[in-house]
Queue: 2 jobs
Job 1
Amino acid sequence: MRLKQYSVAALMFILAIGWYIYAFKTQASTSIDLFGIHMPSLPIALWVMVPAVLLFLASVMHIAFYSMLGSFKLRRYQHDYDKLMKKIQLSILNEHTTEDNFKTDRYQLLGKLIAHSQLKIDDTLQETNNSKLDDTIAIIRALNSGEVVELKKYNLPKDNIWIKRNNANKFATGKLSAEDILSKSDQFDATLVENALHKFVEDAPLFAIEKYKNLLDKKALFVILKRLNNAENHLLEISNETLIALFGIITCDSACYIEASKVLGENMVPEQRIKLFELLSEQNDEAQEAYIFTLFDLEMNEVAVELLENLHVEMPKLQAYNTLRQCGKHYDINLFV
């Protein structure tokens, strides 16, 4: 029963007792001594009401005291509940939470479990009746659907999975350009930077590519090589010196150089191709096999055989090809590398 309702009911009851005694029992007055103090003469009905009033005041104080304690307890529960909802929200966002101290044992246990767990919401959950959690779940589903959302209010670190997903969605929808990402590559996920670079080199001019050459990888280099002298694929004209510098940025083994020679063989002028791999082989031994392959591919057989015999390096596939060629067996050299 609420304190206000209790007070009204109790006072009405006390007044009813006094009225009943005064109206139907006696209207006489009397005085009493209380702890040696002579009290004034009052109607007996009032004297009967005095203990009831004292009991009422004591009960009100008792109820108020325990109501206050209950209020403090509820406040602790509400505080822990809000803290727990925040931890659940962060867990849904794939953000690590710590074992904060809770004011109640039950929430302390739940908080500990969440701090060492990862929550993943499936598609069957419609709503939680908690607006903040519902908003967070809606954002996760929007991100998974390829939408761009606002995440600043969550103050997530840049390496958070949903920050990465949001940036990827921005890039996919055109709200973030490849050059925007490359110009601030330290602020984005490495995978997104790679994707942006591969997209960028598909049609960027040479001067723009050189601007971000420190980010170059093997896949991006091969995209560039395919554009070389290719009018149907965003034509690029690049000197051998520039190509050698680009090859120097990435780690390229023998197979990589051979594959590059095959790609360049589609559109590069033979003389430039031969000269390129000659220069590369002088700078890097890994390119020697690709140089000999290029010579065989362009039917510069005598030069290729001379190099193959004088390098004193085991190249079994090219040596097998040369042996068959000398025996009059003509095979496509691409079958050997």
Note: The longest strand covers residues 29-30.
Job 2
Amino acid sequence: MQSRTSLDILICTYNNARLLERTLEALLKQRVSPSVDWGILVVDNNCTDETAAVVERLRPVFGVDLRRVSEPRQGLTPARVRGVVDSHRDWVAFVDDDCLLAEDWIDQAAIFASDHHGCGAFSGKVILDWEEDPPAHTTGYGWAYAETDLGERPLRRDWLAGAGMVLRRTTLEQSGWIDRQFLDDRIGKRLISGGDVEIGLRIARIAEVWYNPACRLRHLIPAHRTSRPYLRRMIFGLGASGHNTGALTWTGTYPAWLLHSAGQSGQLLWQGVRRLAADQYRRRPGRDIGIALGFVLGWWWAMWQMLLMSRSSRRRLLGGILATPPSSPIRG
């Protein structure tokens, strides 16, 4: 690397001390070049468990800066904003509190950032690490758990998702996301997402976005997250998020979006019905209608919620990220 790269690891957490401890212990094992300046910021989003104690216990054994800040407003999006505002390095990485970074992850991120001057954001390979053998009904739904494998070569992309997403601070400022976010992400235990996709879309409008397979992480999947009700809720939330992120880039009127969205939902319904029919024909165990049709059900729910919005609220959401992005300095 020709110049010193600096990177803040931002870990937003809510009552997940057990997995947070494993995430931090994995960071202890990082093999990082001396030319990389890095630190860790844990954003405590109203935790009532042992989160603070975990951070305090591990702080003395880290050779880099490990801090904890609090964000009283509940939700992943305000927690991420707090992390960005309260950190200072040139790059920020959103690492979930249930992700274990490979031992060379930070070094590989720094190398990629240094070598790609036009890059505003990138993410890497996400490998699922199941606490127990996954049940049959999860087969084919790795995408719902953020599994990502686009091959062994770097690729340009149009958008990114959240696990291990690395962002150039100046580009994030220019995107306008720090000052105004259109979509909520997870709030407490509510499984609605989309905030990370919004960030990726906004960055992609003004800079290059990449997939970097050299940055590998394992996403821990506890057994309770593989239950049928949990998977149904998660896929439902992803369907609602898919509708809303599509609305953010829409250039036409609301009636035109409503027709387009209805057409998209018809395709999603057909895909779900085909999955059910194929499972029945091949006698695959474990499938149910709530899982197979969860995405389109979430899409329909989001359509209904938009229909109930005021006209001004719909105007703000439709094509929201296509407005000229403001510049916004970080307030430390």
Note: The first helix runs from residue 17 to 28.
